[in-house]
Amino acid sequence: xxxxxxxxxxxxxxxxxxxxxxxxxxxxxxxxxxxxxxxxxxxxxxxxxxxxxxxxxxxxxxxxxxxxxxxxxxxxxxxxxxxxxxxxxxxxxxxxxxxxxxxxxxxxxxxxxxxxxxxxxxxxxxxxxxxxxxxxxxxxxxxxxxxxxxxxxxxxxxxxxxxxxxxxxxxxxxxxxxxxxxxxxxxxxxxxxxxxxxxxxxxxxxxxxxxxxx
Length: 214
Ligand SMILES: Nc1ncnc2c1ncn2[C@@H]1O[C@H](COP(=O)(O)OP(=O)(O)OP(=O)(O)O)[C@@H](O)[C@H]1O
Description:
InterPro entries: AAA+_ATPase (IPR003593), ABC_transporter-like_ATP-bd (IPR003439), ABC_transporter-like_CS (IPR017871), ABC_transporter_ATP-bind (IPR050166), P-loop_NTPase (IPR027417). By secondary structure, this protein is α/β, with parallel strands linked by helices. It is built from 7 helices and 8 strands, in the order βββαββαααβαβαβα.
């Protein structure tokens, strides 16, 4: 399973190019950071990876990638349901028994440092706990590709650290994980890096300043 980006570029009609010449092979077991300044096209590239937007140039080949999961910057859950219920649902949906789903969900929560919060209702979780719960749930569903958009955008620095630490736990042999972020610490928590800012600065620099013409 993998996703191949070949000379990918995108622009919306009537607007200048967002990014160009992005080539990468994305594989399971890695957590890819997707960085770049605001407006450089990080969320757009996630949507292209998901197949929601057709790129203006280049190609995306999704090889054996069927299920795509998302984790958004605002954790969204059912206020009165427990943390463990949120994750168990992913296992129940795959046909596990209630007992097995509960056990698997508790193990997943442990992995994200949420073992002691398993029986707390979603509404009583802190912002960082809720975001780690979203990561645990996202991975529990075992998507082929998990797209994570700005997971620390709404968090203070200390809480963001907990989420960044959890990203290491998000590495999975069966899932390709891609994390769009502004946060350099989130970037550093990932195992591979794609920088749209670099692509943009090469594109925007006058010809004489471009590295390839130096
Ligand atoms: N459907 C669309 N039609 C036209 N323009 C769009 C569309 N979606 C996004 N844009 C524009 O494309 C640019 C890139 O947006 P995008 O959200 O991908 O950037 P980003 O790097 O994720 O930004 P941020 O870090 O601020 O979230 C922005 O200027 C945005 O307004």
